[in-house]
Amino acid sequence: QKEVEQDPGPLSVPEGAIVSLNCTYSNSAFQYFMWYRQYSRKGPELLMYTYSSGNKEDGRFTAQVDKSSKYISLFIRDSQPSDSATYLCAMKSDYKLSFGAGTTVTVRA
Amino acid sequence: DVKVTQSSRYLVKRTGEKVFLECVQDMDHENMFWYRQDPGLGLRLIYFSYDVKMKEKGDIPEGYSVSREKKERFSLILESASTNQTSMYLCASTSAGAEIRETQYFGPGTRLLVL
After folding, report:
1. Residue B10 touches partner A, C-beta closer than 8 Å
2. With bands split at pLDDT 50, 70 and 90, how would you rate the model's confidence at B33?
3. A59, burial (CB in 10 Å: exposed 0-12, middle 13-18, buried 19+)
4. Which of B109, B98, B104 is nearest to B27 (CA)?
């Protein structure tokens, strides 16, 4: 069983829709939870991070963590074609990050 | 702005060749990492280094070695390339500062094809 499970999609939504992405994990030692965005032929870039259960907002993005259920989510409101990318969840313990497989999202204009 | 650069964007090598992938970061980061990224598998950690001349195995070190002679440079070596090492290779770095800032900055990746 993988430490981090993420549905690879792909996910296709119309412009303006809410995008909902999620990951589950099995390792209780994970302390920090992150979402990375990766555009085609580029390296991942950090989008959001959080270390506690609850919600964190940054503009159109909301990251949600439920440690009791070992479940994290990312919501993108008012999605734009420029949000089309692969989104990877990542979780940290010690030096290392453990990544989900990534979900490919396409926002149709 | 943190900059992580990788020596090549695309590489084509033959089975059995020795392959060097170079990564350089310009932010004086202590920690550096090599991942490979494959469809459906996400990023998997190959090796990491938390100091010059120090290295630690990640989750999939078999068939790879690394070298860190200088703080800013971390090299990944495929001693004898095989077709199952065809992949996207990503280098990352991070400071050893406060936990909340310990995010990883990634290079653009090297897409390696082994024939």
Report:
1. no
2. very high
3. exposed
4. B104
Of residues B1, B3, B31, B7, the one with CA closest to residue B89:
B7
Angstroms from A28 CA to nearest CA on chain B: 17
Interchain contact A43–B (C-beta under 8 A): yes
Contacts of A90 in chain B (CB under 8 A): 43
- In this structure, which amino acid lies at residue B64? Y
Highest-confidence range of A91-105, B10-24, B85-99, by mean pLDDT?
B10-24
d(CA A93, CA A30) in angstroms, rounded, equals 5
Residue of B nearest to A8 (CA): B40
Percent of chain B with pLDDT over 70: 93
Cα–Cα distance for residue pair A65/A33, rounded to 1 Å: 8
pLDDT at B79: 94
3-state class (DSSP) for residue B26? coil
* Mutate: best of B33, B37, B45, partner A, most A CBs <10 A: B37
Q: How far is A78 from chain B (nearest CA, A)?
A: 27
Task: Give the SS3 label for residue B1.
Answer: coil
